[in-house]
Amino acid sequence: MRVRQSCCFLVNLKETLSSLQNIGVLLDLDGVVYQGGSLIPGAVETIHILQHNNIPFRFITNTTRLTKKKLVHKLHSMGLSIEINEVFAAPHAAVEYCKGREYTAIDLVVPDKEMKEDFSDFSLNVESPQAVVLGDMGHGFTFGLLNSLFKKILNGAELVAMHKNKHWHSGSELTLDLGAFVSALEFAADKEAVLIGKPSPYLFQLAVKPWGIPFQSIYMVGDDMVGDIGGANNVGMKSVLVKTGKFRKGGVVRLGEKPNYIINSIADLPNLLQLY
Ligand SMILES: [Mg+2]
């Protein structure tokens, strides 16, 4: 009896280990890994455990306010030891999209001028662009800017929006995000935008492409019911909602999306994945 039990235990252990080797993890940044300028407790330990167990992971974010280099620098300065290729943001997916469409001339509308580096393959801010690539300009969204973009779109430019988020958590309160301005341009020009960031499948698919792991074995951890949870559900990944960042009691029911798992914070992820 005892032999049979230990055999079963070994088989189960073997199955668990082989399945563990075949999972991947996508982590949203804002509200999951950090909030404002501080890491969420448990983030460093969770990343160490993923690294220790050789679980492939990537941070995917809709943020359009920082270049890839600055984003990695920000994470390093907060105490996270990660590689540049472990961060995947909407602007990088936008570059891939525009290359795929064989665009050569685009209007890049982002707050950080240094982001031009990430778009060095294109002629930027020409008179008649093939696409308007739009990020969150925050206070830089003026009537003049929106009107000039509206005219370019009327003249044939495709509106490529980094995302269409409703709001983001600036540290102390919810703040208006890019989505309202994308909607304004779509409405005025009577033309639908192409959405690059979450919940569009594009960012998810591109981020996990190198892994070759089936989507149903990939866990997407996020605090946004639409972008993270809805996006993961749409592509068939396992969605994990954290109760930090944008999480609001009742939001799960109100928005109709259903996460596969709900955990208190990123600190509980190793436990969910049975990693130690
Ligand atoms: Mg978030």
What does this structure look like?
- This protein is of the alpha/beta class and 276 residues long.
- It is built from 10 helices and 15 strands.
- The strands form 4 sheets. It has a 6-stranded parallel β-sheet with strand order 5-4-1-13-14-15, sandwiched between helices. A 5-stranded parallel β-sheet has the order 7-6-8-9-12, with helices on one face. Strands 2-3 form a two-stranded antiparallel sheet.
- Helix 5 crosses helix 6 (179-189).
- The two termini are 29 Å apart.
- The relative contact order is 0.16.
In short:
By secondary structure, the chain is α/β, with parallel strands linked by helices. The protein has helices at residues 2-20, 43-52, 68-77, 90-100, 143-154, 179-189, 201-208, 225-235, 251-254, 269-272; strands spanning 24-27, 34-35, 38-39, 57-61, 87-89, 105-109, 123-124, 131-134, 158-161, 167-169, 174-176, 194-195, 218-222, 238-242, 261-263. The chain has 2 domains: 2-62 and 199-272, HAD superfamily/HAD-like (Rossmann fold); 92-195, 3-Layer(aba) Sandwich (Rossmann fold), CATH 3.40.50.
